[in-house]
Amino acid sequence: MTTPPPSVYDYERDGSQIYERSFAMIRAEADLTQIPHDARAVVVRMIHACGQVDLPADVVVHDQLVAAARAALESGAPIFTDAMMIASGITRKRLPADNNVVCLLRDPRVAELASTWGTTRSAAAVSLWGDRLEGAVVAIGNAPTALFHLLELIAAGGPRPAAIVGVPVGFVGSAESKLALTAFTPAIPHLVVHGRRGGSALAVSAINALAQEREI
Amino acid sequence: MTTPPPSVYDYERDGSQIYERSFAMIRAEADLTQIPHDARAVVVRMIHACGQVDLPADVVVHDQLVAAARAALESGAPIFTDAMMIASGITRKRLPADNNVVCLLRDPRVAELASTWGTTRSAAAVSLWGDRLEGAVVAIGNAPTALFHLLELIAAGGPRPAAIVGVPVGFVGSAESKLALTAFTPAIPHLVVHGRRGGSALAVSAINALAQEREI
């Protein structure tokens, strides 16, 4: 263990260089003109996470998203998410106020609520966020049902989060849930990837970029 | 908390139905003809995780991948991975032998090794897998440097894993690392997504599919 294996391949081994060259390639190749200026670094980081420079064509960012999310995080607001992978991926040292990152999918109450309510565990877990949701930052990267349920809670007069990263992935309900978020009134500052694309990596990269302005 | 919010949107709320309809849509839309028969369910699950039915065009699956990975897991082999998100996402109840899932990125030795060796923490962590790597299943979904380092370890006579899911993502070294894996001799059973695409969700979905034949 005291020596590395002999070099066979010629590749970049400097982590900072890899980040810098990656972000430069993304800025050179991706069309970010439709993205608000203050959100471009967020979308660059999302492209970095999925390897696809065509992502911005499907991205819609509300013009208050970055300001609202960053202010909330700096004031100590928690981050609520629908997947353990997302909670795991958020880089704690980028969070400005040691913010709590909360996923309640494994809460012991979830299975019974989901069964009683006839919905998914992901959706039931959203109801457990409770009053702490007021002014919080939400990242939904897995379940369309969680995003629909969240919007239904808010529509019923429930707590309003400060910002919603809405990037559930998939084939059943995903595109529709993101259309519902962008059409919601009164609007909540949001970021979506329209269509089927989405997922934990996109949710995590968006939150990690919103947490701090510096890129690396 | 004893009642769900009133229904506003018309969406599928049955988790099993969502899975089944999703997998059926993927099988109807995706061209899986180039994928070995026993690996098609693996690729379907990967498509489910990224929302993109064009994924198979970039996927290469070694003809022994499924048999080798499944036999290793059934015999209790550990799963080594390069990212905490991947370790978090693997569904433990799908694992056939309560297999250990190991990511050593946060091992206290990693930072110094990476600095001494002039490589990334992701690559240095691979060296810490040690002899347990022999016959194990590897899932690399983040760092190209981890995959290059792994191949260099094996080329130097180190332990040989039973199977490698090689889906690092990104712009610097990612495509090259996956070409190196498919060209490696003697071949190790592998699955790659060529090009820039990859990431934690693809790595996790591949492992979750390899762990068990049943889809849901």
UniProtKB/TrEMBL annotation, chains A, B:
This is Precorrin-8X methylmutase. Residues 17-212 form the Cobalamin biosynthesis precorrin-8X methylmutase CobH/CbiC domain. Gene3D superfamilies: Cobalamin biosynthesis CobH/CbiC, precorrin-8X methylmutase. It comes from the Bacteria. SUPFAM superfamilies: Precorrin-8X methylmutase CbiC/CobH. One of its GO terms (biological process) is cobalamin biosynthetic process. It comes from Antricoccus suffuscus. GO terms for molecular function: precorrin-8X methylmutase activity.
